[in-house]
Amino acid sequence: MRIDVLGPLQVVVDGQIIEVGGMRLRAVLTRLALDAGHVVTFRTLASELWPDEVPSNPVPALHSLVSRLRRALPGPAVLRTEPAGYRLDLPAEAVDAIRFERLAQEGRHALRAGHRAAAQDFLAQALGLWRGEALADVAHLPFAAATAARLAELRLGAVADRIEAQAAGFDTDRASVVVELEQLIAAHPLRERLRMLLIETLDADGRQSEALAAYADYRAVLADELGTDPEPALRELHLRILRRDAAPERAHGNVPAPLTSFVGREKELDFLGDRLRGSRLVTLVGAGGVGKSRLASVAATEVAGTAWLVELGSVAESADVPDAVARALGLPASADTMAGLVDALSAAGTLLVLDGCEHVIEAAARLAEELLGRCSRLRVLATSREPLGITGEALCPVAPLEPGPAAALFIDRARAVQPGFEPTTDIDRICRRLDGLPLAIELAAARLRSMSQKMLAERLTDRFRLLTGGSRTALPHHRTLRAMVSWSWDLLTAAERRAAEQAAVFPTSFTVEAAEHVGITVEELHSLVDKSLLEAADGRYRMLDSIREHGQECLVRSGRLDTARTAHTECFLELAERAEPHLRGAGQLPWLARLTIERDNIIAALKFSCDSDDADTACRLGAVLSWFWTLRGDHVESTRRLGTVLRMPGAAHETARLHASAGYLLNAMFAGEFADASTVVGRPADTATPAAAFVQALLSLATGEFVAGSAVLEPHLSDADPWTRGMLWLARSILDGARGRGDQDERGVSAAVAGFRESGERWGLSLSLMSWASVKITAGDTTQGLAMLDEAVTATRELGTHDAQPVWLAMVRIDGGDTDGARAQLLHVLERSSSARQVSLARIPLADLARFEGDLAEAERQLGLVEDGGDLAERALYTAGTGYLAVATGDLDSAAHNLAEAAGLAAVMPDLPMLAHIAVGMADLHHRRGDPDSAAELLGAAHALRGGPNSGNPDVARLLRDLGSYRAAYERGSALDSANALTKIQSI
Question: Would the pTM count as exceeding 0.85?
């Protein structure tokens, strides 16, 4: 299907035009087409369809329109209903307006890169899409009028781009171009670009008198209409034409025509153009291989006047720099080289490009300063890995390519060496591993002659050996990745090299304080930034991966790698231990943010301590990181890493090992990986401290010794520290809940809430409030339970790190019957969360909400978008969700299989509320199979597991109504203790 709006609305399917009748239907389809592939909210659609007066209840009116539109379309499934609005499920390219914008932009980029033929092709395709006025059917609506005006402006720009590309050709019929431009100017008399194109075309056609007359005509129009003069660029063009007869014939520079396309630097090119217009000396600075030379060459071709390129990379001695410039300008040998350069470079509009100044930086700086002082109309563009450092210099930093442009460059170069190349998802990984460096990307793409994309991505662990074989005509330090990095390294002083090697120990960005801790001075940091060995941003420093790898190789050769890593580990152990007390109180947010920034550094420190068998440091880091990981919701990662630490042989501080063990057990419980807990964590020798009691209690939970676990906590439940008290009561409530003692569970969570409120710690408060709300809602006290959930949501949002908690909170809302509140909370997750895991998890209860409303197709769609992975609880929830849906669709065999699998996962944790949720699904399954007695007993077993009827949940409420006459069976199930209820579920 294709939708065309650049003219009267057309829906085209398999080459046939489909009529869509009715202005309102055409307006709906047009508006959705402009955002094809994206959701247009109900509010937006209503305000734009009824701009004068939105109906009091617009959603039903929209539903009616969309239903009629679906009937009118040959493929109604393309019009999707989303929770927040509607989405036209078509690729953006299926809409001519969107395709036009993309083609026009590509045409402009090709034009700026000097690819005239490609530009003409793109622009011809773009302009060929127009059949009349854009959005003609709905032009009376404000949204359409604004969009049509914008598209018309883009169309005029594309026409001008096409004319510019056409006029630049040697074989162009410039007379016809002039006629077209005069027609456009008649319609748009104040458009300066059209006037400039006309004057340039007349001048190129040898019609200088007409060009001057055209300028005079435009100047008169501006004076009459606006009281202004033409812009400086047009005035300069006018002066050049006036002076041409008087000026001696001179060369037009030596910048070579490009052999490859220019990809991914459009913004930098615009910025560089602004710099050159405002400064006489501009220096492109950046790391080796980042593309400074190519950017300078392209910029030079766009500068009006004469551009001379001087490649200094091959100049060995500083004294030879002036002679190298003279040779590039084609000047004869002279005793006074500088005088010859001044004469040659004094003409207006001259640009001198000094490419590759870093190894002769002082000589290049002196030459540039003298030439600029003696040639008042000269501009100099330099490229270097450090600034020239002279007065008046404007810097233009060149950073590695962003992921999108980096992939585009790789694809472009890959297609040059491998006809028929088809990109895969490996490209993003390759470009990311190569830091987005154009040289490295081009060297990698060349390897596709002999290996697949997947093989290339895997072999980048040995990037220096792999990335060789650059252009034979390139300078030696541009032929291999190692040569490029070594060239930069060799230009450093001995002290700078040592500092760069020390900086290579950081796996990610770092602060000044961290740098000083490993022996790098502030002066050395600034020097490394100046020489493009480090990037500086937001008070932190970062080294590109390729440079870091070279630095680590140097550390290995010098025998200093372990010493550097030890200093790095000590630095981040000190930071972590300084942060840890703050993580347990009201001031946790800034410290949590700081540790999050330093996460990779701290993980590297932990890995080094494990690799070097330093059990004490590993346990000290693990003790701190366990709570950090808990706050972030990284339960699976925490369990894996802490398990490694606790299995290490060797002596460790007893308190640190105990706290690491507590963190391991807490995270293993949430990750559903309790099965190995007793083999990883040994029982404490005594339980005289709160930490030891906590460890013993959670081990008892893992082994099913619930009563003993509760008893060991008893002496510490009145601890003076409120956070410790909250954690112990939380553990006590979990133990009580695990043995089905809902009355004691409420006592525990209420005491835990009190402790966490006093300490100000948000994670424990949110979790305890959620548990308490669940107890209240299960018992039927919905009002108080929902109020607790509101407080828990506030605490979770303030924390801002825990992936799953907002979703679990929404599920408790569903149990309380607050489906609208749950939906709003889940949609907030979908719209605002940056966590793919959280978004994926939110779709499971969204599927339940759709199922409650009878929209089984939407429920299936939501479950289909859930990503694989997650911890055990999340996998159990997803599997249960598929079981519930299978029951609703009548696929009872699949439902039985999925619900049994979910029960098995939940039993491993053990998670009684999850098992109760699954038991309700099993009850529904048996009810639909015609076995109401077993269904009622299972519904009662769910009551026993959670400690209450949970009658606010829509599934439970429906089954209680349907099975009301089987009260005896229900009471038989609700009378079971938790162990027998679990057995009952597993037996069925």
Answer: no
